[in-house]
Amino acid sequence: MNRLKCLALTVVGGICFLSAAPKAQAGVDISIGVEPACPYGYYDYAPYACAPYGYYGPEWFSGGVFIGTGPWFHGPAHFNGQVDNHFDVRHGYRGPAPHSGDKAEEGKSFDKGNFHGNETRDGHGHAQEDKH
What we know:
Blueprint lengths: L1 H19 L40 E2 L2 E2 L14 E3 L35 E3 L5 E2 L4
Antiparallel strand pairs: 1-2, 3-4, 4-5
């Protein structure tokens, strides 16, 4: 009987000990860093390399400044804008692209006359159904 009492006290003590243990808090600290400084915008997926001229349509720029995409998007809530994914490296593009910190080339504007988009995306990189 003493063994049974000792076992019971050990079990009760263990339960009390475990219930009094501090709870671990799961926390995730994500630091995405500084928004890339690209003259024609950056791709909407990591590692956020600079996109070439012609990838984003004019609606992605406000006063010549890129409104951002992905984690740095700072456009309207229900934004949809045209992209030309022929200039996307995931679609086979291997041409020239600016580097972070480069300046836009003189004479390259973001007007609709020079842009030929083939896909609509929101500010977070999701393709949208084209409603045209």
